[in-house]
Amino acid sequence: MTKLCRYGLAGSEKPGLIDSAGTLRDLSSLWHDLTPERLSPQSLARLAEYDVSSLPVVEGSPRFGIPVSHVSKCVCIGLNYADHAEEAGLPIPQEPIVFLKAPSALCGAYDAIPIPPHASKMDWEVELGIVIGSTARHVTEADALKHVAGYCIINDVSERSFQMQSSQWDKGKGCDNFGPVGPFLVTADEIADPQNLRLWLDVNGVRRQDGSTATMIFSVREIIAYLSRYMTLLPGDIIATGTPPGVGMGHTPPVWLQEGDGMRLGIEGLGEQRQTLVRWHRDLPAR
Questions:
Q1: Does residue 51 form part of some domain?
Q2: Which domain does 92 fall in, by range?
Q3: In what residue span(s) does the Fumarylacetoacetase-like C-terminal domain sit (predicted)?
């Protein structure tokens, strides 16, 4: 149907829509914000019937925030690409590896990434993001995609020295701005097959990741059904589905991100992200 977004300064974002011509339009006359409730099948169906050409055009190049407000949780799947597990020297998982990324880690697609104090092994991970549109609890694989509002890009930024300090990965994945999302959410009807999307990531202009969701171990359907057995997936929840090979940790020797480095990443049909790493300071906006 369309591409939905939130634009404007952090904390003051407005709902937006990118039409078929690539023009950003203001949705404020219809919706106060792009809240989880707006992702229901009924709400999206009503929007699909609306004449979006009547919506005001947004001039300039505004900041894009997290595409959905009030995200209750971001659930991540680790080692979900066979070729990434191979580069990490780890066995193919028999069940999805599940961890959580703190909601406070989520940020806009072009926001800067602050390097935490004492960090030494900053890394990147381009991932397909699933955005839930309706409550999913003990759903079957056959019905799983009915609960998807859309898809987006996620950069699962990681600090490997923090991550490897224990068996729990959350600490190395949950720092401020370690989860750029967007720049927009593409509704599910625009993605014919989420298991056939090319995804890539460059660091300072050098291609580091170039893969396809076709090599995911656990599919979008399987992930949603599996997670719904252990937690209720709510509208607005985001699921990061894992990364293809080429992360910094997988190089010999490893390649770690440094202050001033730039990342550019994209997924077929879902747009692009760009981030720069900056030195952390207390007054830096967290989102």
A1: no
A2: 68-279
A3: 73-277
